[in-house]
Fold this protein.
Amino acid sequence: MSKNQIIAKWKYILAGSLLCLLSYYTYGQGCSDAGFCTINSFKPNGGEPIKNQFKIGAFVGKGDNAISVYGNYVEYNRQLSKNFGLDAKLTTLAQSGNGISTFGISDFFLNSNYQASDKVKFTLGAKIPLSNANKTSSQVPLPMDYQASLGTFDVIFGIGYDLKKIQLVAAIQQPVSQNENQFISTNFPANSMLRSFQTTNKYQRSGDVLLRISYPIQVSSKLKLTASALPIYHLANDKYSDELNVVKEIKGSKGLTLNGNVYFDYEVNSKNFLQLNLGAPFIVRDARPDGLTRSFIANIEYRIKF
């Protein structure tokens, strides 16, 4: 067996091993953040300067409490100069489970990128909510698990660094406003599944920081596999107001979530690409009242450069 055949064999073994690993760990939170882990410049191979790029994607995932989630998005990336670029992204989300189905436009992301050097890139942006996170059922507010958006206006800052083939990203997403959710679990009958959900009336969500470590493997001339580790740390316990309007902390909502992702990028031709992204968690926070819990998530994306 030649050296190239041996290398190719081990690439396929590694890819299969990663898929098996992700399939095994399917309880907890997928990306499970307020949105910044899917920003173009924070994704593996997302920092390459491109004059114009358009993306369309869709994902499916499994949440807590027998809730299935479905989403899609459109995105436009524009390189304004050698050093500056802009990203714009619009997202939607649908949830279904326990006899309840919801759908809504989620958020609009607008980010600016500055290429400081061949290895270093900075991103500054914002997540603008297009929903106040207070959907209702029979005029009774629903928990965050059924909301299309967190309903918070967030600022986002990150830095990317290329260390040979290893790609590193560190970022923070901090809410500067809160949503209008009014869900109180005791408003539902004792036999209702929603009675067991965390109350999020006047919900106050804390910020997150992430570190992404990615390593790409060129499987063939057309196919690239990228393995990615994604720790996300929720900076403080979230808060809510109970039936008596007393502000309380949600214990266990602060802490670490560790996710694994595998990206498969297929080059149809020099301008058209397909990407499959699979994600699952290894470590989760004890409490996740924001409704972002994902036991497994799969995302398919088409992008075109022009």
Remarks:
- The chain is about 5% helix and 50% strand.
